[in-house]
Amino acid sequence: MTGTAARPGPASATPLVTYALIAVCCLTFLLGPASGFSTSHGTGVELLAAQTAYFEQWGVVPRELWGGSPQELITPLTALFVHGNWLHLLGNMLFLYVFGAMAEERMGKLSFALFYLAAGVLALLAYAAAHAGSEQTLVGASGAISGVLGAFLRLFPRARVTSLFPFLFFLPLRFPAWAVLLFWFALQWLAARTAGDRPGVAYLAHVVGFSLGFLYAWARYRRAVRVKNAAGPSELRSPGGPPPDPR
Q: 43, 111 in Cβ contact below 8 A?
C-alpha cells in the first residue's frame, strides 16, 4: 500500500518535521535488532533474545513504568521511535507521510513536533495507567500518529481519501476523510473495549491519541478550517483501502 497527500494549486512548504520523524524512525529500526540487518546481534535464539532485551529497554512496560525507575520514565518517549518489525514500521510511516505533511503545514513546524511527541507520550501513559499490571512491552508511533489523524479530521474535514480495494480488483473509490477517519476511530474504540489485557495491538493508545489530537486541534483552531485553492478542496490519496491500522 502506498499513499500521498496532494494539494492542488501552489506548492506548499516542505514538511521537514514529518520527514525528520520518518527518517529517525527508519534509521532507529535499521540499526536495531528487529531489522535483522545487523550481524552483531547474532542469529536464531541469540537474535530473538537481543530483540526482546531491546524492546524492554526502550519500550514501555506498564508494570515497570510505575516503579519509579528514572530509566523507565523516559520510555514513553523512546518507545515512539522503536518498531517491532517491517510491517509495523512501514504501516506507521505511511500514515505519518500521508497525514502528517498537511497537519504540519497548518500547525507550523515547532507546534507540530511538540504536538506529535505529546500525543504519543500521553497515549502510551494512558494505556499504561489502564493496564498498570501488564508486562506487555509497548513500542511504536501509533499513539502519536493517531493524534495526527484526530487533528487532521478537525483541520481538514473536507479532504477526500482515494483508496484502492484489493478485494474489488483495486477499483479506486473516493470517500470524505471525515467518514474514513471516524470509521477507523469506531473500530479502534470497539477493539479497545474487547481487547482486555491480552498481548497485541494497544487499541486504547490509538483511541486516546486520536481523541487528544482532535480536541487539541478543536481548541487551538476554533475557527472553521477550510482548504482553499482554485481547483477546489484538497484531495488525500491513499491507495490500498481505508487507512491501515497504525501500531
A: no
Backbone angles phi and psi of 171, in degrees to 5: -70, 125
Per-residue DSSP letter, 140: S
pLDDT score of 132: 85
User: H or E segment at 50?
Assistant: helix 45-58
pLDDT > 70: percent of the chain: 67
pLDDT bin (cut points 50, 70, 90) of residue 99 is: confident
pLDDT at 227: 47
Task: For residues 167 and 108, give the distance between their C-alpha atoms in angstroms, rounded to a whole number.
Answer: 39
- Cα–Cα distance between 202 and 210 in angstroms, integer? 13
Beta strands across the sheet bearing 160-165: 4-6, 235-237, 160-165, 171-176
Burial 207-223 (b: 16+ CB within 10 A, else e): bbbbbbbbebbeeeeee
Higher pLDDT, 173 or 139: 139
Lowest average pLDDT, out of 47-56, 85-94, 193-202, goes to: 193-202
Rounded to the nearest integer, the mean pLDDT of the chain is 77
Residue type, 136: Q
Reduce the secondary structure of 57-107 to three states and give it as a string.
HHCECHHHHCCCCHHHHCHHHHHHHCCCCHHHHHHHHHHHHHHHHHHHHHH
Residue with cell 504501516: 91
Residues 213, 134: Cα–Cα separation, whole Å: 26
